């Protein structure tokens, strides 16, 4: 399924990665995925910055614009990881 999503992307992952990192100074990407969210194809990056928790930055895979930036506290991050494991 990922290959079909990546075939649909007009922006490559390296470009999206640079865009996301520009939003979190001194950040380091800890995970990334290409996914369909709210009817939109996005690269979703979890970026560890200097503050506790992570910043989730979503970049539109068609035009390279930043769709959203959300901070996840360590507690929210743990809850999301737990939910992801249940889905697998």
How is this structure best described in words?
35% of the residues lie in helices and 38% in strands. By secondary structure, it is α+β, with helices and mostly antiparallel strands. β2 (40-48) and β3 (54-60) form a beta hairpin. The model has no long low-confidence stretch (mean pLDDT 90).
Task: State the main characteristics.
single chain; 88 residues; alpha+beta; Nuclear Transport Factor 2, Chain: A; four-stranded antiparallel β-sheet; globular
List the helices and strands and how they pair.
Elements: H1 2-8, H2 13-22, E1 28-37, E2 40-48, E3 54-60, E4 66-72, H3 74-87
Low-pLDDT stretches are none
Do you know the CATH topology? Nuclear Transport Factor 2, Chain: A
Order of helices and strands: HHEEEEH
Q: What is the CA-based Rg, rounded?
A: 13 Å
Give the number of domains.
1
Helical segment count = 3
What is the CATH-assigned architecture?
Roll
Assembly classification = single chain
CATH class: Alpha Beta
Strand order of the largest sheet: 1-2-3-4
Q: Which structural class is indicated by helix and strand composition?
A: alpha+beta
The overall pLDDT, averaged over residues, is: 90
Question: What is the percentage of strand-forming residues?
Answer: 35-45%
What share of residues is helical?
25-40%
Characterize the overall form: globular
Number of strands: 4
Provide a compact summary of the structure.
With 88 residues, the chain is an alpha+beta fold.
